[in-house]
Amino acid sequence: MKLNIQRPRRNRQSAAIRGMVQETFIHPSQLIMPFFLLEGENQKVAIASMPGIFRYTIDEAIKEAKSCAAMGLVNFILFPVVEENHKDKHATYSYHPDCFYLKAISTFKKELPDCTVITDVAMDPYSSDGHDGLYENGKIHNDQTLHILGKMSVAQAKAGADIIGPSDMMDGRIGFIRNMLDENGFDQLAIMSYTAKYASCFYGPFRDALDSAPKEGNKLTYQMSPGNQREALIEAQLDEQEGADYLMVKPALAYLDVISLLKNNTNLPIVAYNVSGEYAMVKAAAEKGWLDEKASMNEMLTSIKRAGADIIITYFAKQFVETNFKG
Length: 327
Ligand code: PBG
Prior knowledge:
Elements: H1 15-21, E1 31-38, E2 44-46, E3 54-57, H2 58-70, E4 75-80, H3 100-111, E5 116-121, E6 134-136, E7 139-141, H4 142-159, E8 163-166, H5 173-183, E9 190-197, H6 204-210, H7 230-242, E10 246-250, H8 256-263, E11 270-274, H9 276-287, H10 293-307, E12 311-314, H11 317-325
Parallel strand pairs: 1-3, 1-4, 1-12, 4-5, 5-8, 8-9, 9-10, 10-11, 11-12
Antiparallel strand pairs: 2-3, 6-7
């Protein structure tokens, strides 16, 4: 019997050959490590649903960030854990001069001047309602929210942020924030837009970490429906027209098709957010001995990259670099 002349297995014969034909690689420069920041000092608090990830006071976060930087992991995204007494309906603490998060941004830039500091722009960490927009009688006030997001962005810009990350999903926010930044002299500050952010159950552990879950209602009127793909293109077109510098898809693993769709419809860099629940699933299965942790992490991140992500935000960033690149 004569087999087909093509034999794909020829290119899989040794590690060296497999390495040569491998199409997708992840370099530490393409990873972003998230940090959850606490007010105060000298504290490092575990998060039950995210083994290996901590909430840090600024001093402790800087130590950890320096250890990341030493291994070539130099891009960080910062999230604040805000104390309940600082929260109010209009998230005013987010742009208050004494806000510890703004101080954290400055400290990161002072201690790690060559690293990238990406910030979070959304009301939910500071909102007594736990929503990303101004919430009243069951409704989100979109356009009133834009003014709050604008003030928050300018405050973060003044604190020294390198990239602003609006994660709120209000309509028109990229253009509004872009204008406000430009008017205040920050025309070089980039915007990483959470373009296609789905209303996902995979954010559960993050909301535990920040204690930021909605007190009432849900996020379905602003985050996207998991069943929709073409709607992501509408969001992408708007963000691009409004001046976004990066387009993000979030979550990542359950939305690989959306990553690939956006990749094929824009020339902007695509960011994928490998979210807290996606991290927790691997950690939990590995703890039970049901999955090989390193192999799962590597395969998951590779698939996100292969789908078209240029950049990945992942809680695995440090572990990935440590286990694949060090030594
Ligand atoms: C909220 C925000 C969320 C995440 C990042 N920013 C949660 C939400 O929308 O409720 C989730 C990140 C993760 O799960 O890792 N502005």
